[in-house]
Amino acid sequence: MNSLSFLNSLILVIAIFLIYYGGSWLYYRLRAKQLGGALSNSQFEETMRKAQLIDLREKKYFDAGHILGARNLPYTQLKMLATELRKDLPVYLYEQGSTLSIRAALKLKKWGFNDVKWLEKGFNEWEGKTKKTTKL
After folding, report:
1. Please, what's the b/e burial string for 61-75 (b: 16 or more CB within 10 A of its CB; e: otherwise)?
2. Position with higher pLDDT, 74 vs 34
3. How far is Cα 117 from Cα 35, in angstroms, rounded to an integer?
């Protein structure tokens, strides 16, 4: 394989990667807009006490710090643990960013949850009260 052929193959692989992941990102952003569930920090904080507050991150990240009052239901276990949620109450989701929250909101909507919102910029940008889980 000459260097030109290798370079063309590399460019093709990179292009496919960018199209797939860029397309996936765009798809979830468009779906998020359709759902209309993104909440700013202030909107989230003002209304979260009336909702089931769910942290979608894995337990070690939840234990390291989470929004005060949140329950940990990792995204990887959402299908199994969704039965713990009440469909008659709002569900507020968050994680580090927002892509997993959007994906989880789409799933919950499909499973019959009507009022699903998420923290627009995720836990990374959260300015409200947090708590760490202490080990005894």
Report:
1. bbeeebbeebebbbb
2. 74
3. 9
